[in-house]
Amino acid sequence: MLSRTLRSGAALTELGFGAAQLGNLYRPTGDEEARAAVDAAWDAGIRYFDTAPHYGLGLSERRLGDALRDRPRDEFVLSTKVGRLLVPSGYPEGTMDDGGFAVPATLRREWDFSRDGVRRSVEASLERLGLDRIDIAYLHDPDDHGEQAHAEAIPALVELRDEGVVGAIGAGMNQSAMPAEFVARHDVDVIMLAGRYTLLEQGALDDLLPLALERGVGIVAAAVYNSGLLSKPRPAADATYDYGPAPADVLARANAIADVCEEFGLSLPDAAVAFPLRHPAVVSVVVGMRTADQVAGTVDRYGVAIPEEFWLALSERGLVRDA
């Protein structure tokens, strides 16, 4: 599998393993099933793995660390995130997490983008992962904490990078405007951009992507299926977009793109995985994978050869914007 290198020197495979599902996203996943998914990803050549404390109240980090611990440490890149500390919940026994993960709520998330909070978060993640270092540390969804993120969190990550505790730093968000500010104002290495540079929408071309290319900052494209809308050859009438019902105009555009896919013997998910990698700032596409079968299917999509004529047809019909 091909890799692209950050300015920090970390080589990210073009397809990355998103480990939210290992934290029991929406439904339980067994330990063996989770381990099999990571093993299948490794066997397929994937060497970039992304997790976060938020994912299952630390369960994703623990499972991913367990699955990677015996692998050669210099052969994979691991990212996790800061901004949500995990603290004892005090909830009654049997209470389940209300953050979208099927896990007991023995812990709760506490927003903290302070210098101390960032350092404590990284220390706790290293303990859960059982690894000696974190290759990439992202601020996780600092949308409502911009002032503290600029004043404390990014400088704290710079300190940790200077100390060698983390290899590269950045932010992971579902918008492009604030990450563009981080790139403009700070010495960050990489941005994880969820849903804002996909086959369906290219708003990040207006701010983040040109700036990232100018500054040598890598972009990791996540949520490339736009919360499921592009995950099947034909979007369902009740498909979701940005985790809500898809508006009629968005659904119509997705179907129009699917029409072009069919003309070229391709599928919507094939094109969704391939599209972000066409931009020179993008270093990896991260896809959430729960099982070994999902890994195999995603790797197959990544491997589909897509002719340049297909992209030209989409552009000529006004269905995608040129980079």
From TrEMBL:
InterPro entries (UniProt xref): AKR (IPR020471), FDH-like (IPR044477), NAD(P)_OxRdtase_dom_sf (IPR036812), NADP_OxRdtase_dom (IPR023210)
Any Pfam family: Aldo_ket_red
Domain of life, per lineage: Bacteria
Any single GO CC term annotated in Swiss-Prot or TrEMBL for this entry: cytosol
Entry coiled-coil feature ranges: none
GO molecular function: oxidoreductase activity
Domain NADP-dependent oxidoreductase residues, every copy: 14-311
SUPFAM superfamilies, alphabetized: NAD(P)-linked oxidoreductase
Record protein name field: Aldo/keto reductase
Annotated organism of origin: Agromyces binzhouensis
Lineage: Bacteria, Bacillati, Actinomycetota, Actinomycetes, Micrococcales
